[in-house]
Amino acid sequence: VQLLESVGGSVQSGGSLRLTCRASGLTYESYCVGWFRQAPGKEHEALAHIDPDDGARYADSVKGRFTISQDNSKNTWYLEMNNLDVEDTAMYYCAADPLSCMTVRNLGPDGYNHRGQGTQVIVSS
Questions:
Q1: CB under 8 Å to 18, separation ≥6 — which residues?
Q2: N or C: which end of the chain has fewer CB within 10 A?
């Protein structure tokens, strides 16, 4: 299984970006997919996850601003990010696991079976 995130980018504070996580080689019927980020000098932060059983869940830090979604026909997951702040500057990762989100949601990105290489998002004031 390979996960490939779209190129992130730079945006001004208050702006929006949509990240894409495209999966290939999936072998199970469903996956829990999570989005994470890591800012310089900080720990990984779980942002959102989604699966057919648990639906979409969000960290308090992004609730109301970020939306996770999926297109099953394309094996693609999205993270729509609105009202971005300089504090959102980080490397963003998607991760996937065939177990349910209820099982893996408290794991960091390295706890998932598969993880993308990451994409940089820079928010300037």
A1: 6, 78, 79, 80, 81
A2: C
The tokens 């001004």 sit on which residue?
A: 12
Quick one: which of 53, 30, 33, 37 has its CA closest to 85? 37
What is the tally of helices (H) and strands (E) in the chain?
1, 11
Hey, is 119 helix, strand or coil? strand
* Residue 102 phi, psi dihedral angles, 5° rounding: -60, -30
SS3 of residue 82 by DSSP: coil
**Along the chain (125 residues), what's the average pLDDT of each consecutive run of 10 residues?**
92 97 92 95 95 93 97 92 97 95 86 94 97
DSSP label of 85: -
Q: Tell me which residue of 77, 79, 61, 60 sits closest to 17, measured CA to CA.
A: 79
Residue 62 pairs in a beta bridge with none
Do 125 and 10 contact (CB within 8 A), yes or no?
Answer: no
Please report, in angstroms and rounded to a whole number, the separation of the first and last CA atoms in the chain: 37
Please provide residue 99's backbone torsions phi and psi, each rounded to the nearest 5 degrees. -75, 165
